[in-house]
Amino acid sequence: MIKRIFLLTVLFSVLGNALIAQDRLINKADEKYSDYSFSPAIDIYKRVLDKGYTSADLLMKLGNSYYFNAEYKEASEIYKRLLSEYKEGIGPEYYFRYAQTLRSLGEYDLSKDVMAEFSQITSADVRANLYMAERDYLAEIEKNSGRYDIGKFAFNSRYSDFAPSFYGEGLIFSSDRDTGNLARYRHTWNSKDFLDLYKINADSISVNKVVKFGDNINTRYHESTSVFTKDGNTLYFTRNNLFDGKTVKDEKGVVRLKIFKAVKEKGVWTHIEELPFNSESYSIAHPTLSPDEKILYFASDMPGSYGESDIFKVAINSDGTYGTPVNLGNIINTEARETFPYVTSENVLYFSSDGHPGLGGLDIFATKISNSQYIGTVLNVGKPVNSELDDFTFIINEETRNGYFASNRENGVGEDDIYSFVETKKLEFDCIKPITGTVRDKISNEVLVGATVKVIDENNEELASAITDSNGNYSITIDCNKGNFVRATMQGYVPSEEYLNISDSKPLIVDFYLERDTVTAGYGDDLAKLLQLSTIYFDFDRYNVRPDAEIEIQKVIAAMEKYPSLKLKVTSHTDSQGVDAYNLWLSQKRAESTVAYMVSKGIASDRLQGEGFGETRLVNRCVNGVKCSKAEHQLNRRSEFLILE
């Protein structure tokens, strides 16, 4: 008994120590996670998981640690386990990230299924709407692909090289290639060295070789993503939050990013100062300038952001002060990451996102800025610039069509590599489609001269208009990236409208047949034509009223009820198939059947007559001996309603 008690005591002690050790590991990992130190957290969480200990919280954090380090295969496995073992209570964010990792691995069908679940959970999410609205987003990406010839950047290292920016005839870029001499200065986001700015072919010192940029710019911490004014004398760049040479952490213990400005005087970069809208509690990074240099664009997770980071803009005033930062809105920003903006001389905004439909990881997207509006179509620039992994920091010279971007795709030299490219075909933002057609009177088929054809948007605002010429023809254009209503109007006629949601590039012909708003009928007119009835047909060798014909006959009955003095003659016809005499009999039976039906519905018999004409009044070429299709013969099996009084 004493021995058993001793063994139980030892066992509980061992178990207790194991649980305490497990808790310590998790707590240690949590500390690393909250510091955005994802690489150390991965090792610790994985150790706990390998020992058989698991929880929803652990899987969330381990999956996120992989995800934010672009280790999508590992992240996918963890998210899959999380959603299968702890489905209840898991937020929609994890469905979205799981779908992202699946796309990175090329598992597009499964990714779509997961996105469908995501959309059901949170229909209000911008990304859900984007994916549900663009179910065939891969076809859209394919349409934009093949427009770039990708080349190598000869100055990549085995470390991270990214964030190119134009400077003079050369480039400034960010790299951690030789900043790791002192281990204490390593950045714990991914256990890589801190970043500095470098130049290549930017001046005589850097011809065909990589040289550190500006002694006063680089510090022992991060410097990255830069943009220069056109005169080359003002620089905006990203740097860690520093004070007196030391990093400053926010209340959560995170060292935030800030944008700094520097001015070149006598060849030296000086007057280095942070921008006034920086903050100790959120990051502001990745600056770029508008073509007129009056607007600074950047990425931030400041309050008012839709997601993990959004694209913002701020006015640069003539006196050197700044306006209030403004979010670019939910056409561009989603609940995920939008970052690394770049604006071209033609006012095209390029940025990276994992919230818009893409191939996986961060993809590069573009949208046209028009009149300071950010409501245009956001387009994925396609392959080969975009890949299944992260693609970012895209820049392009609109005149030469040459540019650069960075990616962590496979077969690179280092962790992140810079790639050069030549754009062989411009991205089409404006899809202008010509529409032509003729406007006619629906009854007489006569062309209508002077009719107005308008393009109307979803808010019923007129976008364009045209007037029909002497032949009743019109020509107009629409933007096929938008849903458009095309409406034809003319005095004395009921307007006619078509909704066009166009995706191809072929010209479109839309003819309009307008109904008169007032119809004057006379002796011998066909009431069916005046009332715009569908033709009343009969089955082959049958004279009973078909269900579809009942609907049209009811319209005639309604007209007769409205006008008690109206009298009609029902004329029925057959096709040419069969014996002529038989067809004459059959048509008479059809006329009588129609009259009997109307009488049964309350129309007085003395207001109706019926006569059959057999095959004597064919509407087409299908006479005896002519081979015709079933559809052509069907046109002759009909009834008409001629006005007698």
TrEMBL record:
<dbReference type="InterPro" id="IPR019734">
    <property type="entry name" value="TPR_rpt"/>
</dbReference>
<dbReference type="Pfam" id="PF00691">
    <property type="entry name" value="OmpA"/>
</dbReference>
<dbReference type="InterPro" id="IPR011990">
    <property type="entry name" value="TPR-like_helical_dom_sf"/>
</dbReference>
<dbReference type="InterPro" id="IPR050330">
    <property type="entry name" value="Bact_OuterMem_StrucFunc"/>
</dbReference>
<protein>
    <submittedName>
        <fullName>WD40 repeat protein</fullName>
    </submittedName>
</protein>
<dbReference type="InterPro" id="IPR006665">
    <property type="entry name" value="OmpA-like"/>
</dbReference>
<keyword id="KW-0472">Membrane</keyword>
<dbReference type="InterPro" id="IPR036737">
    <property type="entry name" value="OmpA-like_sf"/>
</dbReference>
<keyword id="KW-0998">Cell outer membrane</keyword>
<dbReference type="InterPro" id="IPR011659">
    <property type="entry name" value="WD40"/>
</dbReference>
<keyword id="KW-0802">TPR repeat</keyword>
<dbReference type="Pfam" id="PF13620">
    <property type="entry name" value="CarboxypepD_reg"/>
</dbReference>
<feature type="domain" description="OmpA-like">
    <location>
        <begin position="525"/>
        <end position="645"/>
    </location>
</feature>
<dbReference type="InterPro" id="IPR008969">
    <property type="entry name" value="CarboxyPept-like_regulatory"/>
</dbReference>
<feature type="repeat" description="TPR">
    <location>
        <begin position="56"/>
        <end position="89"/>
    </location>
</feature>
<dbReference type="Pfam" id="PF07676">
    <property type="entry name" value="PD40"/>
</dbReference>
<dbReference type="InterPro" id="IPR006664">
    <property type="entry name" value="OMP_bac"/>
</dbReference>
